[in-house]
Each structure stands twice: as structure tokens, then as C-alpha cells.
Design a protein that fits this description.
This protein is of the alpha/beta class and about 170 residues long. Helix content is about 40%, strand content about 15%. The N and C termini lie far apart (about 55 Å).
Length: about 170
Amino acid sequence: MSVERQRRLDDNFKMRKRSNAAALVSIVLVCAISATAKDIAVISHKGSAMEEIAQSELVKLCKGQTSRWPDGKPVSVVLRDPAAPQMRLVLERIYGVSKEEVPELITTANHNRVNHPAIIVVDSDEAVVKKVETTPGAIGLVDVYAITGGVTVVRIGGKLPLEPGYLLHGN
């Protein structure tokens, strides 16, 4: 085999190797983006009569502007750490602020509510579900795939997660 032909084969091999590496990087990026672009469900305590909420009311609850349900029970909103990538959608569509601004909002909402905080931050979707299951008057924001039979899924503006037009749809 000639030196020239060997050089062309080596160059061709290197180009294919770079192309494969670029394709792999693209696939990893798409997977990472879609992993953070999930549908978020609003869930409520099973004993609650809440089955639907208006977007404006959900925003008030999540910002701690509503302290009691119409039946007089205190309201608690349970959610993941606002800095978590999974919370990007909630920050954009519910809070309308950056992740750096949410801790101050939570502190303000919880002021003077020591025994029953307005907003409870937990570490995982499973912890959100568990806290909502065990806290009367609680609602939570959780990945749809973490929902269990121990909670009720709440409609937002008449829509359930995964329905077209749902407020907290991740794409």
C-alpha cells in the first residue's frame, strides 16, 4: 500500500471518529435537555377537596400570598429546591423570578408562620409526595412520574398534566 493511500485512509478514519464523537455529544446534550424539560404536576393532600385551581390562584399560593383555604385550613406549598434544574419551568411560569430571588420570597412568605410554613422546600420529588400525603392542606409541585396513589392530581385551568395547553408542560 502506498504511503499516500495510507495517509488518506488515516485521514478518513479520523474524520469518521470526529463525526461519531460529535454525534455522541449531540445525543448526550439532547438527553440532558429533555431530562430537565419535564411536566410538573400540582398535587394535593387526599383529604382535600381541591381538584382544580386557576393559574392566578396557584401563583398566589406558591408565593405565599394566600395563607388559608376557604375552609380555614392553613395552606402549605411543598416544592423542590428552586435552584434544582427540574424547577426551571416552575420558576419561569409560576414565580416569574430568577432562582436567586426565590429564597427571599420563601423567607418572606414563611415569616410569622413557624408552626405551619407557607412554603416547604424538600430535596426530592419523593419527599414532595410524602410531605403532601402527610400534611392536611398541602399542595405540591412534582414531576408527573413521581405521583403516587396517596395524592390527588389537581387540574390547572381545567387541564391535567400531559394534556395540550397544560401550564407546566416542559417542552
